[in-house]
Amino acid sequence: MTTVFVYVGDEGQKNLETGIQESVWGWKPGVVEGKAHLAVLQSLRAGDYLVLGSRGLGRISAEEAHGRTAEALHITRLTGGLYQDHTTVWEDETYPYRVPMEPLDVWEKARKDDLGEDAWEALRRSACANGAAKRAEAEDSFMEKALTKVLGGWEQELAQAGQPTDAAGDADDPADLGILELPPATDRLAYVRARTEQKALRRTKLAGRHEVPCDLCQLVLPKRLVHTAHIKRRSVASPTERADLNNVMFACVLGCDSLFEHGYVYVDADGAIRPSEPVASSTHLTTAVERLCDTCTAHTDASADYFAWHRHTIAHVS
Predict the structure, then answer these.
(1) FRET partner for 99 with CA separation of 20 to 30 A, picked from 3, 130, 183, 206?
(2) Alpha-carbon distances of 309 from 236, 256, 289, rounded to whole Å
(3) More confident position, 165 or 117
(4) Is 162 exposed, middle or buried (0-12, 13-18, 19+ CB in 10 A)?
(5) Which of 93-102, 173-182, 206-215, 222-231 has the lowest mean pLDDT?
(6) Digit-coded pLDDT (tens) for 15-64
(7) Can you say how many angstroms the Cα of residue 258 is from the centroid of all Cα atoms in its chain?
(8) Where does the pLDDT of residue 197 fall: very low under 50, low under 70, confident under 90, or very high at 90 and above?
(9) How far apart are the C-alpha atoms of 283 and 15, rounded to whole Å?
(10) At what angle do helices 185-206 and 139-160 cross, to 10 degrees?
């Protein structure tokens, strides 16, 4: 796993906003071509981390940087490696050397102690090199701090909600029941961030209820038997879509969650639950689908586009 740090100054703030929104970051040819920076970018792979530091440093000495504060730190995870593309993303220039990424977290008012000395120095060196991507000498130190911060924030949210402050698992969340251990270190920050986001959505959607109806079969079940499932998969949803409660439905673990997840059933434009084509050739699948209700209670005008995505992309219904 590799983590690189990029500094974005005052003039790049609009580009930073655009890059985060479009899930891509780019560099000018002059910052890449014929420079050691190119080898750094070529080494990046999906699963590596790109940390974008906003304002506060600039072309200053290491000693002067120690007392500075970065306005914001955007932690992103790469979804692919370096590629070249000249299509328009940013208004001022093309920035053809690009990496695709997904935003994970934002730290406001970050200082050296928040990142660790090596990561802070990498960010300063990037500021001195026109925003070139720089590695920290001790990458593990930054990742440990990032994990600690995410877990600490989640535990604080639990405490404020009057819940047990155990961020590791929840006996009433079926998504936690099959988790035996954390994923490999390369995926750990993204995994923890995703789980904390999902738990926050689940808590909001449950609204204190201990029993909820499945949106597909409409059985009222204990909450531990009901998933809070994204309609448009989280892996392809934008940050806004991932946090949208209209993109979340209740799907029970008695079969509804899996039938919907794998596209054996879909919700049509009128909110009716329909079997997809593979169901017709299986008596057992047909039996499983027949226990579902006629309509999906999660289908509304606000969720219709999410169900349309699932219908076309997962169930392959045109």
Answers:
(1) 183
(2) 11, 18, 21
(3) 117
(4) exposed
(5) 173-182
(6) 999 999 999 999 999 999 988 999 999 999 998 899 999 999 999 999 99
(7) 22
(8) confident
(9) 54
(10) 10
Token digits of residue 116: 């660790």
The residues, ordered by sequence, that sit 6+ positions from 235 with a Cβ below 8 Å of its Cβ are none
Domain covering 3-137, topology: ph1033 like fold (3.10.590)
DSSP string, the chain: --EEEEEE-GGGHHHHHHHHHHTEEEE-HHHHTTSHHHHHHHT--TT-EEEEEESS--S--HHHHTT--EEEEEEEEESS--EE--S--SSS----EEEEEEEEEEEEEE-HHHH-HHHHHHHHHHHTTTT--EE-S-HHHHHHHHHHHHHHHHHHHHHHTT----TT--TT-HHHHT--S---HHHHHHHHHHHHHHHHHHHHHHTT-SEEE-TTT--EEEGGGEEEEESS-GGGS-HHHHT-GGGEEEEETTTHHHHHHTTSEEE-TTSBEEE-GGGGG-HHHHHHHHTS-SB-TT--TTTHHHHHHHHHHTS---
Only one residue has tokens 């999902």, namely: 198
Half-sphere CA count of 266, side-chain side, radius 13 A: 24
Among residues 248, 247, 278, 246, which one has the least CA distance to residue 262? 278
> 139-160 and 117-127 helices cross at what angle (nearest 10)?
110
- Domains of the chain, by residue range, sit at 3-137, 209-313
